[in-house]
Write a structure and sequence with these properties.
about 300 residues; four-stranded parallel sheet; about 10% strand
C-alpha cells in the first residue's frame, strides 16, 4: 500500500514550511503548485491547485468559507453533502499521484474536510500519514491580523476549529503533532521523527536547509486574557505536551462549544466580510455586463446553452 503525507492544521501555522521541507526531501506535492507570494509565503505555499479547487467546491456545497467561524468537522459532518465530489477526488489522486512512490497533500481547508478525504484515501488504497501542524495561537492571531485584518476573536475561533477538527479526525490514524517552534528550531529532529513514525524513505536526506528561522515573523506576542485566548492556549499546551490527554482535550472541546457563540462581534465581522465580497463581485459583474466583450460573446453563450440543453 502506498503512503501519502497529509499536512493539516490552521492557516499560518507552518503548514507551508513543513510541506516545503517535505518537497525538498523528495515528497511529491503536486503537478501545479501555487507560486510564492511576497510578504505572505516567500518560499511558496506547496498547495496543489487541483486539491484547493476541489476543497473550495466542497466548501460551496457545505455553504462554508475558509474563514467561517462555525465551520468544523468535530461536531458533525454530513458526508452526503459532498459525496458528489467523491469520483472527482478519486480521479484526482489517480491522475496526480499514482506514479509517485511517495506523495504529499497540503491545504489547510482539508482540516475541515477530513471525513471526506479519509474515505477517499481508503478507497484509493492509500495509507495516510497525517502531520498536524500547530503554532502558538497568539502568533497566528498576529499573522492573520497583518494579512487579513481579522480580529483576535475571529482568528482564535478559526485556530481552535481547525486544530480540534484535525485532532479529532486523525487521532485514530497514523499521525504526529509538530509544533512550529520545534520545526523552526530543530528541523533535523522533525525529519527523523517523520522517518521513524511513518517509515518514510527520504530521497534526499542531505537537503535539510529549507527551514529558515526568518519564517517565524510573529514572535512572543501578547497572548491576551480573554476566555477565548486562555482556551486556545490550553489547547495548544495540551497538544504540544509529551503525551496529550484525550480526556483533557475532550473537556476543552466541550468548553469551546459552550463559549464560541458568546461573542456576537465575530459573526458580525464575518457577515460584514461576506457583504463586502458580495458587493465587490456584483460590481465586477456589472462592469463586465456593460462591456463590449459581453455583447460580442452573446452568440457564443446562446450556442453554449443550446449545446448544454441537448
Amino acid at each position: 500500500m502506498k503512503k501519502a503525507v497529509i499536512v493539516v492544521g490552521m492557516h499560518r501555522s507552518g503548514t507551508s514550511a513543513i510541506s516545503g521541507m517535505l518537497s525538498t526531501l523528495g515528497v511529491f506535492m503536486g503537478k501545479k503548485l501555487f507560486s510564492a507570494q511576497k510578504g505572505v509565503n516567500e518560499k511558496g505555499f506547496y498547495e496543489n491547485a487541483a486539491i484547493v479547487d476541489l476543497n473550495e467546491k466542497a466548501f460551496d456545497l457545505l455553504n462554508w468559507t475558509w474563514d467561517d467561524p462555525l465551520a468544523n468537522c468535530f461536531e458533525k459532518f454530513d458526508e452526503t453533502v459532498v459525496s458528489s465530489l467523491e469520483k472527482q477526488a478519486l480521479a484526482l489522486i489517480k491522475t496526480e499521484y499514482q506514479e509517485q512512490p511517495i506523495w504529499g497533500m497540503k491545504d489547510p481547508r482539508t482540516s475541515l474536510l477530513l471525513p471526506f478525504w479519509i474515505k477517499v484515501l481508503a478507497k484509493s488504497n492509500i495509507e495516510p500519514c497525517f502531520i498536524l501542524m500547530i503554532r502558538k495561537p497568539n502568533e497566528v492571531v498576529g499573522s492573520l491580523k497583518k494579512r487579513d485584518e481579522f480580529s483576535d476573536s475571529k482568528s482564535l475561533l478559526l485556530w481552535i476549529n481547525y486544530t480540534l477538527s484535525s485532532y479529532w479526525q486523525v487521532k485514530n490514524e497514523k499521525f504526529v503533532i509538530v509544533s512550529f517552534d520545534h520545526l523552526i528550531g530543530a528541523p533535523t529532529e522533525i525529519i527523523q521523527q517523520l522517518k521513524t513514525e511513518f517509515g518514510l524513505v527520504i530521497e534526499h536526506p542531505e537537503k535539510q536547509d529549507f527551514i529558515d528561522p526568518k519564517m517565524q515573523n510573529q514572535k512572543q506576542l501578547d497572548s491576551g486574557k480573554s476566555e477565548l485566548h486562555q482556551l486556545a492556549n490550553s489547547v495548544y499546551l495540551e497538544l504540544t505536551s509529551e503525551q496529550p490527554d484525550e480526556a483533557t482535550i475532550e473537556k476543552l472541546t466541550k468548553t469551546f462549544n459552550e463559549l464560541k457563540l458568546k461573542d456576537s462581534s465575530v459573526f458580525i465581522e464575518h457577515i460584514h466580510s461576506l457583504k463586502l465580497s458580495e458587493t465587490k463581485y456584483r460590481q465586477l459583474f456589472y462592469t463586465a455586463y456593460k462591456s463590449i466583450w459581453w455583447k460580442l460573446a452573446t452568440p457564443f453563450r446562446k450556442l453554449e446553452r443550446l449545446i448544454t440543453n441537448n
